[in-house]
Structures are given as C-alpha cells and as structure tokens.
Amino acid sequence: MALGDEATDPKRILAIGDSLHHDIAGAGATGFDALFITDGIHRPELDLQADGTHTPESLAKLYEQYGATPTYVTRHLVW
User: Fold this and answer.
1) What is the number of domains present in the chain?
2) pTM for the whole structure
C-alpha cells in the first residue's frame, strides 16, 4: 500500500512538522492528523510560559494567522 492508494486509511497516518503553512496545512488538506513541533520555525512567534511551553493564546493566534490547526502539539520531537 502506498500513500495515495485508495486503500490508504488517512487515520493511520500522522504528519509531523514545524511549518504551519506547509506541513500542518498540507496534512489537513489531505485529511491526515498532524503533530506540530513548536520549537521549529515558528518558535520566535510564540510566547513562552514559565515552564517553557507555549501559551494557548499564542498558539491559537498562530493557527488563525496561518489558517492551519494541528491535531497534536509538542515542543520538540526526539527520534
């Protein structure tokens, strides 16, 4: 089974990326769940809380600005 096959179940795919414009919006357009990495290219646009996480308000503002909302959010990814 290859990506794009009719038998591909979109709920079995998780797109991972740090770009709301490319990675997260692209995942949403194809019906895939998406994990947004906040310590990537959008880090300077986000407000940090005392514990190093991003404020829900700054995340919501960014999602609205780029027209893309991820399914999941994490600060960084360790492979």
Assistant:
1) 1
2) 0.85
